[in-house]
Task: inverse folding
């Protein structure tokens, strides 16, 4: 009797433990929800296929464990396999964006718009390495990232302005070892920046460029280049470059050069969208108001599409770019689709549809544009098993509701997207973490420098971007009783950077997370400050690219409370807050200042 | 000097036990031979009865001397399976039922009595499924008694089993104890009621101030307790009173005297002859008080 | 015999616990009500709710252990029930072990209730593995607190045991930072907390759910291990003093 009580209680509690812990929210289940259906074996019936080069009408395609196993009309389906009737629909290969810079939620943004692989032309090495290992995992639906990793440039040259640590080159002798280090880091190819014939910023010289190209070829990898002039392109052609990641648009291409490009089989990734943006010729509303596109854009993508360059580059003339594309296209030179996302006016995934449209408008045929976004980049960058719908290839493809054969904008009419045979959820809900609410207390500094959610306060100065300024921050208690404290910043501004800064930054512990927060419940930021009297700045970040919206304020040697409405920060999108920096606004010298009670407030 | 007799159930030799500054047991020597029956341990509260039983049960460690039960030390596993006990002032947890208490204790013994059988044969079924806290005093005592029996022990210790019970409950318990003895169990029962010892036991051990002052078959003890107590206020002095007919002892108690006499009629006659003016007269049977007085006097004489 | 005895004894302990509302209400519902108040009624984020879950789980394990062992052992000892057990063939450790298991089972109910509130009402989300680890750890907290309870139960009379258990229970909870993080305490109290098992157990719980760095894990574990042994020794000494 007592034994029965014991056995029953034990059984009851074990069952309760199992069932309660089963229904409790758990983090893994949210990840698992991304993929549906869980099987990556199925059959698609009666579909039109663009296989990467040609259209095939009305056929069946069999997918088994993430691989395309057969394409034929009237395939017989084995038992209990899922059959998708795709009458009237068109299957195109998973798109490949041949020019991106990976950051934040780039990979899931890409997948949501049918871009299943991308060729990154410069990103944070650690970030790339963390994704690279997932490329060969066929049992999940990861976007496949290929990358040059770090780019080759000189000190102060193009590429050094983004705040990512770069090992610059100063002599041709360094090239071989430099390339070896990149390959050891996992770079899939070598990208160099070659911008001579202008006097604004320094560039690699031809000898060093040659040494880099030779070293890459010796290691059997491609060498591709960022160029800004026809003369630069000619130099690199002479020394064996494999491809250009932008089209030159300073002058119309000359016949000799075109012939040489064709003869050497060099490819070009024009990145027309970015050039249109530089020329104020970019219409983002095509995407932002498109009912096939807008529902799948998250707020980061929207703000990135709305953003514009605040500079004009005479080196990139849009009409010359169009003309050069036409010339190269008729010369039989391979043109690949690349967006250069997330530059202002572009965003990951979505922009590939605009780039394809612009290439069509420039004169390419629909089939060639599609090929330039699938078969060609795969072939040129040796992405084995990708870029084509053929037996033996990976089941990366996009099922379209309209036929792109005579209308390239049909690529936006997506029915479904498959990666490794897994259907991708296009829902933005799975991206919830990137747009969550932020606790209003950004910095109370009660006992440490922790911020709200997973954010933390760290020191930030231009030395991370190659400058000489530095900052240290610390937590200081107000009284010996150690009940409450504040943030203390020692900053030293030194020469050596175009726009120097030194101060404290609130952002994610792991900056590659790029989480964004919705601050639309609040109207203003408020904080207490004191310090060495003078001018200081507060900057709000939407993304880590470009100059952030900034306000200046005057600090006294006693505590003052400051309140700044978001609307005074020019261009700040409160729905996509990603970080905050306080810095001294002084030009040179040593400063120290204290901050406390940094809060978000709602004012009427 | 130890008389090692392997037939004895209990053998206590020169047992001595003191608590802080009070001597509880003073040179106890006691033997219970292998044989059924009831042995009464008679004495005042504080005479050392409970201490003696606790020492026998292994609940209390002696200062010197030896105790052997079934030729083993108390508290050895071998002993624990052969004894049962009802301790003084013990209460079981309130929130278990009679049946649960019995089931629990039954599970402690390798060879226990069936709980069902025990409930019916001890007439516990009326309150078998009642919580312990809702039982009457007598019912509680019967549950404790059943627990003492559940391990089929041959030797049972009942420490003041009827203390605080009304007379009907007491008589019921007596019947049960007698039945046990009839079934061959050996029972050591402590009490401070003379009549209880007299009614139940075949042998009485009288404990007084930590000493055994008498240990004899009940009839012998009873013999020493015949006669009556005459209580009155008299002007006679001690020696005059002592010389009265059949008077064995005289005790002054305040204004009163207590005369222990073998024949109260003869004694009254001689008393009234010497002192016709006595007052507040009462005659009663001798109680434990007188027995102890009597026995301790005899022992010192011995 | 022993497993049969153990199961019966544990069954009896469970029955005694669930039949005593004065035990069930404060020790099981107290933590649940407190957690609801701190993590749900008062404004908080899922992060603070997760933080509080770690420490209130320790709180929930402490109540049944300190009261179950402290008050009920004192009471059962005083009634002579323990003496009665001692003259039977079972080992006294069976009683302790059964009480421990019964306490763990009863504690599991209250922990699951808190977990449910945390997960469903306060949006606390952990990986399944972490939920299991946390539950396992919270249940293991019963052991050191039981030794504390045993010492109280063997040393004090049942009336004083109630008062002492209350003081120990509330003191350990509050000063050990189970209700609010000790970082808001004055520094003297923060130092004092280092001497309390509750502080170290709460820290380990926070490490389990990855809200604290594993840096001090070994240190906390060692301190808890040593404290448990000390409490066990105190319990043993007070126990053996009671026997004779």
Result:
């Amino acid at each position: 009797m007592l034994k029965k009580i014991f056995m029953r209680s034990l059984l009851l509690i074990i069952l309760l433990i199992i069932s309660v812990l089963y229904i409790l929210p758990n983090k893994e289940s949210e990840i698992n929800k991304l993929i549906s259906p869980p099987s990556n074996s199925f059959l698609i019936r009666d579909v039109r296929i663009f296989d990467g080069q040609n259209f095939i009408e009305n056929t069946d395609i069999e997918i088994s464990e993430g691989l395309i196993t057969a394409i034929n009309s009237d395939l017989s389906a084995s038992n209990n396999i899922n059959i998708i009737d795709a009458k009237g629909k068109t299957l195109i290969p998973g798109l490949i964006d041949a020019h991106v810079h990976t950051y934040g939620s780039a990979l899931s943004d890409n997948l949501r718009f049918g871009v299943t692989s991308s060729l990154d032309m410069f990103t944070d090495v650690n970030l790339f390495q963390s994704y690279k290992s997932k490329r060969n995992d066929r049992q999940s639906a990861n976007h496949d990232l290929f990358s040059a990793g770090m780019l080759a440039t000189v000190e102060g040259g193009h590429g050094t302005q983004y705040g990512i640590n770069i090992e610059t080159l100063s002599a041709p002798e360094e090239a071989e070892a430099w390339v070896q280090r990149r390959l050891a880091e996992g770079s899939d190819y070598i990208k160099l920046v070659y911008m001579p014939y202008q006097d604004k910023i320094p560039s690699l010289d031809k000898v060093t460029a040659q040494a880099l190209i030779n070293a890459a070829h010796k290691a059997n990898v491609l060498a591709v280049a960022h160029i800004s002039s026809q003369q630069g392109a000619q130099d690199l052609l002479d020394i064996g470059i494999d491809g250009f990641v932008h089209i030159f648009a300073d002058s119309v291409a000359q016949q000799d050069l075109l012939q040489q490009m064709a003869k050497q089989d060099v490819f070009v990734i024009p990145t027309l969208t970015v050039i249109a943006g530089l020329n104020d010729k970019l219409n983002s509303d095509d995407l932002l108001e498109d009912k096939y596109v807008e529902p799948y854009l998250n707020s980061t993508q929207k703000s990135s599409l709305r953003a514009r360059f605040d500079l004009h580059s005479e080196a990139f003339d849009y009409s010359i770019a169009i003309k050069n594309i036409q010339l190269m296209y008729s010369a039989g030179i391979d043109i690949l689709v690349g967006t250069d996302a997330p530059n202002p006016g572009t965003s990951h995934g979505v922009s590939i549809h605009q780039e394809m449209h612009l290439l069509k408008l420039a004169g390419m045929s629909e089939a060639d544009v599609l090929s330039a976004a699938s078969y060609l980049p795969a072939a040129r960058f040796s992405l084995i098993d990708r870029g084509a719908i053929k037996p033996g290839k990976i089941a990366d493809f996009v099922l379209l509701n309209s036929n792109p054969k005579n209308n390239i904008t049909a690529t936006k009419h997506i029915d479904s997207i498959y990666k490794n045979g897994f259907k991708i959820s296009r829902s933005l809900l799975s991206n919830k973490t990137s747009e969550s609410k932020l606790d209003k207390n950004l910095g109370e500094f009660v006992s440490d420098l922790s911020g709200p959610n997973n954010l933390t306060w760290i020191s930030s100065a231009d030395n991370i971007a190659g400058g000489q300024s530095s900052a240290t921050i610390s937590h200081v208690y107000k009284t010996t009783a150690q009940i409450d404290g504040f943030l203390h910043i020692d900053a030293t501004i030194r020469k050596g950077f175009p726009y120097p800064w030194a101060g404290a930054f609130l952002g994610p512990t792991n900056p590659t997370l790029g989480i964004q927060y919705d601050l639309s419940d609040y109207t203003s930021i408020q904080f207490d400050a004191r310090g060495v009297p003078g001018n200081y700045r507060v900057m709000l970040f939407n993304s880590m690219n470009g100059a952030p919206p900034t306000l200046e304020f005057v600090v006294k040697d006693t505590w003052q409370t400051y309140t700044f409405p978001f609307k005074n920060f020019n261009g700040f999108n409160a729905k996509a807050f990603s970080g905050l920096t306080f810095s001294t606004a002084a030009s040179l010298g040593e400063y120290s200042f204290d901050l406390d009670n940094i809060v978000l407030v709602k004012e009427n | 000097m130890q008389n090692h007799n392997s037939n004895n159930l209990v053998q206590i030799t020169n047992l001595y036990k003191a608590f802080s500054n009070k001597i509880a047991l003073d040179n106890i020597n006691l033997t219970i031979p292998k044989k059924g029956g009831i042995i009464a341990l008679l004495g005042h509260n504080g005479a050392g009865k409970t201490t003696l039983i606790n020492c026998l049960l292994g609940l209390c460690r002696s200062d010197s001397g030896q105790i052997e039960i079934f030729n083993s030390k108390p508290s050895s596993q071998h002993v624990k399976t052969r004894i049962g006990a009802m301790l003084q002032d013990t209460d079981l947890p309130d929130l278990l039922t009679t049946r649960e208490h019995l089931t629990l204790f039954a599970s402690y013994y390798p060879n226990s009595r069936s709980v069902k059988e025990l409930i019916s044969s001890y007439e516990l079924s009326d309150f078998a499924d009642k919580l312990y806290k809702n039982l009457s005093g007598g019912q509680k005592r019967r549950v404790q008694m059943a627990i003492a029996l559940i391990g089929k022990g041959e030797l049972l210790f009942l420490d003041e089993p009827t203390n605080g019970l009304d007379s009907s409950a007491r008589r019921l318990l007596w019947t049960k104890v007698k039945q046990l003895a009839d079934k061959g169990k050996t029972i050591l029962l402590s009490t401070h009621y003379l009549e209880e010892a007299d009614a139940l036991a075949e042998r009485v051990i009288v404990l007084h101030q930590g000493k055994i002052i008498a240990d004899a078959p009940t009839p012998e003890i009873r013999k020493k307790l015949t006669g009556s107590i005459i209580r009155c206020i008299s002007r006679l002095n001690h020696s005059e009173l002592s010389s009265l007919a059949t008077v064995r002892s005289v005790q002054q108690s305040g204004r009163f005297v207590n005369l222990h006499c073998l024949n109260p009629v003869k004694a009254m006659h001689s008393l009234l002859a010497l002192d016709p003016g006595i007052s507040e007269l009462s005659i009663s049977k001798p109680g434990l008080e007188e027995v102890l007085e009597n026995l301790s006097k005899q022992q010192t004489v011995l | 015999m022993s497993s049969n005895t153990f199961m019966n004894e544990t069954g009896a302990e469970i029955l005694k616990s669930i039949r005593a509302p004065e035990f069930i209400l404060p020790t099981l519902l107290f933590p649940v009500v407190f957690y609801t108040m701190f993590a749900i009624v008062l404004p908080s984020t899922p992060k603070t709710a997760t933080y509080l879950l770690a420490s209130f789980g320790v709180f929930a394990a402490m109540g049944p252990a300190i009261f179950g062992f402290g008050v009920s052992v004192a009471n059962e000892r005083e009634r002579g029930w323990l003496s009665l057990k001692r003259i039977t063939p079972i080992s006294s450790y069976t009683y302790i072990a059964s009480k421990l298991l019964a306490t763990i089972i009863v504690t599991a109910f209250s922990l699951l209730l808190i977990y449910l509130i945390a997960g469903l009402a306060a949006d606390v989300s952990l990986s399944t593995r972490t939920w299991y680890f946390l539950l396992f750890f919270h249940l293991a907290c019963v052991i050191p607190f039981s030794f504390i309870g045993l010492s109280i139960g063997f040393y004090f009379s049942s009336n004083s045991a109630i008062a002492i258990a209350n003081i120990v229970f509330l003191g350990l909870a509050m000063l050990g930072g189970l209700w609010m993080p000790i970082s808001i305490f004055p520094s003297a109290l923060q130092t004092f907390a280092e001497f309390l098992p509750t502080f170290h157990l709460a820290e380990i719980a926070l490490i389990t759910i990855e809200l604290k760095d594993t840096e001090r894990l070994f240190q906390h574990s060692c301190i808890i291990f040593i404290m448990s042994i000390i409490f066990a020794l105190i319990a043993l000494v007070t126990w053996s003093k009671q026997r004779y």
